[in-house]
Amino acid sequence: GFSKTASEAEGLPDLHPLGGLGHFLKGSSAAVGAKRVQELCERAQHYGNCRDEEKDEDLTPEEVLKRFEPLLNDLDAEINKAETWLVGWYENLKPSVVLNIEGAVAD
User: Fold this and answer.
1) % of the chain at pLDDT higher than 70
2) 3-class secondary structure per residue, 3-53
3) pTM here?
């Protein structure tokens, strides 16, 4: 849009899209049982709103940016662990468990 947030006016990025992405990924990771990824995405969601909910405090955009790099590193590691687990789980499924939309056994 044409309007800028206060952060953007100060030369800092708008963090709200990060919060929205964190919210989306939180739900997706919860759906597949990736609990630690879900927790980290929730933290990203709150950071996008300049909040540290664990400490119940507001953050400045500068504080959020300092915290994001370590968070992204943790998130990357946890996503890799979740991916490894999910691939292993899927590869070990018996064909009779994987059904197509009509209920017939998939190849």
Assistant:
1) 76
2) CCCHHHHCCCCCCHHHHHHHHHHHHHHHHCCCHHHHHHHHHHHHHHCCEEC
3) 0.71
